[in-house]
Each structure stands twice: as structure tokens, then as C-alpha cells.
Design goal:
The chain has 413 residues and is an alpha/beta fold. It has a domain at 10-55 and 80-173 and 235-359: TIM Barrel (Alpha-Beta Barrel). The chain is 40% helix and 11% strand. Helix 12 (266-275) packs across helix 13. The structure holds flavin mononucleotide (FMN). Flavin mononucleotide is lined by residues 35, 48, 86-89, 116, 118, 137, 165, 261, 283, 285-286, 288, 316-319, 339-341, 343.
């Protein structure tokens, strides 16, 4: 539940809903809506969250949970909890240092941070200024030389994994942005000037320090030198012809971990596992692409069956509570990506907000584990869940036990 009055300070935020309310209070409506909104009728955006509400816990009692811990191995390395920060482009338009803030907060909790190719912070800046594990997310661009250069840069900067997002052959139709006259860079109309002016602290920062630039896409088009030219070239630069053969080239050329994000079907997952990807993210881009797409949590069992334990499966979309992370793990996910949940914190209040968001989620996850009689994440299993209104647990998922041990437990101290 949202607090009865929107909090004014990070210290007054006790839930992700509170941080969302703080972001709404601090950002112009058009900017907030850009982060918060989804495609068309926002049915998938809503369905992602509702899917979590459909599962209730049947807690185990009389279990010693005094030393409960969420520490685990995630994609072969230690993590403070089975989660990573999802790539979110353009975060710097809400708060200038949002990318670094998220990366730093992730490192403090010991979870990977994923930098979007549409971020306003350069690949190299994250690598040198933020400690911790870094993944780089690349959209597939028509300009193949540029695409490969980005990947090369991530390799040189020692990024541990490459995330290829495959649910965006074209941009989704986000109608809140149309209504708000919102675009990146900003187009100025009478309506949005008033909107921007209503948040003087934010407006002053943009005015004095200038509009952020999508640093990694500088030079995407030879003529694109200004912020305006770069940003407007991005949308039309996605390559809708990207297919299995091209993904195989990426697999051949990228020597480290390859993660494919944006999968909803078992047959696609099966083929990806066969191709030798290192992980799959069940995702519909947080409801920002195909409206009406199946909720991620609902797609998870099919994807798990498709990979049949050969590769780890992560899931994102709609996670707003630590208990949602517990539900996703109980249903067989190896981990989750955190999208808006941490983004709200970062755009509302930079590093303080990002840390608060992660602190809330981590605390809630641990609390849920203790309350469910699960001292470690490996104890979050399907028998803990009941579909709302029913007494029986769900069918056991094609679950974590079948994945090679290095991807899962035990906890790493
Ligand atoms: C503002 C915003 C920007 C995003 N940018 C990217 C991006 O650059 N690359 C990408 O693969 N996904 C992007 N996503 C999708 C997220 O990585 C993630 O899949 C989604 O946010 C998960 O849903 P949730 O926000 O409900 O948790 C973006 C999402 C949001 C909200």
C-alpha cells in the first residue's frame, strides 16, 4: 500500500511504492510517466505485477532461521541475493547520476549491475568509477560496425556478461509519452514547459548543467553530434532484421557470458539453450513493448520446461517487493532483474535512493524467507506457494536443482 501522503524524503520511504511516490513528487510528470508507463493500454504492465499477487505463501514453521541469508551464486559468482539490476536507458534524464548510483548501490549489496546501451553514462565510466560486477546490455543496431564497437568496448572494459535484448525489433507504443509531448531529448511545448517548471530543482539542474546525452551512442550516425541528433537517431537505429543466425554470430564472437533478455516462450528458450547462451531472462520489457504479452511470471514455467535445466533462467517485470523475489525463486527462477523497483529510487534521489530501494528489497526478501521457514534461497521451493483461493501447491517447476551447481547454491560466504 502507498503511504497515505507521499513521502518528502528518502528516509520516509519504507517500500518501493513510497520511492515511486517520491519520484513522482520530484520529477516533472512527463519524465515520471516515461519511467512509470507501459505500452498502449498498459495491460501487460499491470499483469506483470498482478501475477505475483496470485501466489500466496504456506509458511513452514519451527525452522531455525536465526542465520538466514540470501547470499548465493549467480551466474557463477557470489551475489548478496539472487538479483541483478536490469538495464534501464535514459535514467540520467530523471537524476543525472542515476546510472552510477545504481551501479554503486548494486556493488554494495554484491549484485551485478547492467548498463543499458541507451544509458547516459559511458561504458568506461561505469567500469572505472563503480566497483562490482558489470553486465552490458546491447540493443541490436542497424549500424553493425557501431554495434560491434560497443561490444568491443564492453569487452575491453572487462564487463563480465553481454545482455542482448531481443524483444524490441521496433519501439513499443507508449501513449503516456504522446499525451505528455515527451521525447528524448525534450521537445518544448507550452504544456510541458509548465510541467518542467513545476519541478524547479530538476529544471534548474537541466538548465544549468545541460541535458544528459546517451554517451554510448555518440557517433552512431556520423552527423549526430548534438544531444538532439543522437537521441533522435536511436529509435530508427534498431535492427528489425536481427535473427537466430545473427545471434549465433554474437555467440561466436563474445567469449564471456551471453545472456538473452526478452524471452517468453518455451520453444525459443529451448533453442537458446541449445545454442549455448549462458542465461535467459524471461521478460516483456516491463510491459513497455508488446501490450497484451503474457506476464513474465506466467511465462516462467514454460521457459523453464524449454531449457530443461540446461541454463539458468532469470525473470523480470512487476517485482516491487522482496516477497515477489521469493515467489519468483520458489517458482524456479534462478534470480531476478530489478527494473523500476530500483529505478524509482535512483531517479528520485540518486545513490541514496538506489541504496534505499535495494535495502528495502533485501530486507523484505530476508524477512519473507524467515517468515516462510527458508533459511537459504535454496529453501524457497514451490511447496511454499499456493495459488490464491486454492489449497494445493503448484506443480513442481523444472527447477533449479537440475542446473549445474555453480549456478545455484550453496551460499558463498
Ligand atoms: C525507463 C525504462 C527504461 C528501460 N530501458 C531498457 C533498456 O535500455 N534495455 C533493456 O533491455 N531494457 C530496458 N528496460 C526494461 C528493463 O530492463 C526491465 O526489463 C523492466 O523494467 C522490468 O520490469 P519492471 O520495471 O516492472 O521491473 C527499461 C525499462 C524502463 C522502465
Amino acid at each position: 500500500m502507498t503511504a497515505w501522503r507521499a513521502p518528502r524524503r528518502v528516509a520516509d520511504c519504507y517500500s518501493i511504492a513510497d520511492l515511486r511516490a517520491l519520484a513522482r513528487r520530484r520529477l516533472p510528470r512527463a519524465v515520471f510517466d516515461f519511467y512509470d508507463g507501459g505500452a498502449e493500454d498498459e495491460r501487460t504492465l499491470a499483469a506483470n505485477a498482478q501475477a505475483y499477487a496470485q501466489w500466496r505463501f504456506a509458511p513452514r514453521v519451527l525452522v531455525d532461521v536465526a542465520a538466514a541469508s540470501s547470499a548465493c551464486a549467480l551466474l557463477g559468482a557470489a551475489a548478496g541475493m539472487p538479483a541483478a539490476i536490469a538495464p534501464t536507458g535514459a535514467a540520467g534524464f530523471g537524476c543525472r547520476n542515476a546510472d552510477l548510483a545504481l551501479a554503486t548501490a548494486a556493488a554494495k549489496l554484491g549484485i551485478p549491475y547492467t548498463l543499458s546501451s541507451s544509458a547516459t553514462t559511458a561504458i568506461e565510466t561505469i567500469a572505472t568509477r563503480a566497483p562490482g560486477r558489470h553486465w552490458f546490455q546491447a540493443y541490436v543496431l542497424r549500424n553493425q560496425d557501431f554495434f560491434w564497437q560497443l561490444i568491443e568496448r564492453a569487452h575491453h572494459a572487462d564487463y563480465e556478461a553481454l545482455v542482448i535484448t531481443v524483444d524490441l525489433p521496433v519501439g513499443g507504443k507508449r501513449e503516456r509519452d504522446f499525451h505528455n509531448h515527451f521525447s528524448i531529448p525534450f521537445r518544448f511545448s507550452a504544456r510541458n514547459m509548465l510541467d518542467f517548471a513545476s519541478r524547479p530543482r530538476w529544471a534548474l539542474d537541466m538548465l544549468v548543467r545541460g541535458m544528459p546525452v546517451m554517451e554510448n551512442l555518440r557517433g552512431l550516425e556520423a552527423a549526430a553530434t548534438s544531444a538532439t541528433a543522437i537521441a533522435s537517431s536511436v529509435g530508427r537505429s534498431y535492427d528489425p532484421s536481427f535473427d537466430w543466425a545473427r545471434l549465433a554470430q554474437v555467440r561466436d564472437r563474445w567469449p564471456r557470458k551471453l545472456i538473452v533478455k526478452g524471452v517468453s516462450r518455451g520453444d525459443d528458450a529451448q533453442r537458446l539453450a541449445k545454442m549455448g547462451v549462458d542465461a535467459i531472462v524471461v521478460s516483456n520489457h516491463g510491459g513497455r513493448q508488446l501490450d497484451g504479452a503474457v506476464a513474465s511470471l506466467e511465462a516462467l514455467p514454460e521457459v523453464l520446461r524449454g531449457v530443461a535445466g540446461r541454463v539458468p533462467v532469470l525473470v523480470d517485470g512487476g517485482i516491487r517487493r522482496g516477497s515477489d523475489i521469493a515467489r519468483a525463486l520458489a517458482l524456479g527462477a534462478h534470480g531476478v532483474l530489478l527494473g523500476r523497483a530500483t529505478l524509482y529510487g535512483a531517479v528520485a534521489a540518486g545513490e541514496e535512493g538506489a541504496q534505499r530501494a535495494l535495502g528495502i528489497l533485501h530486507d523484505e526478501l530476508l524477512r519473507t524467507m524467515r517468515l516462510c521457514g527458508a533459511p537459504g534461497v535454496q529453501h524457497l521451493t514451490a511447496d511454499l506457494l499456493r495459488p490464491a483461493g486454492e489449497a494445493a501447491p503448484p506443480e513442481q517447476p523444472a527447477c533449479r536443482e537440475r542446473v549445474p551447481a555453480r549456478h545455484i547454491e550453496p551460499a558463498i560466504s
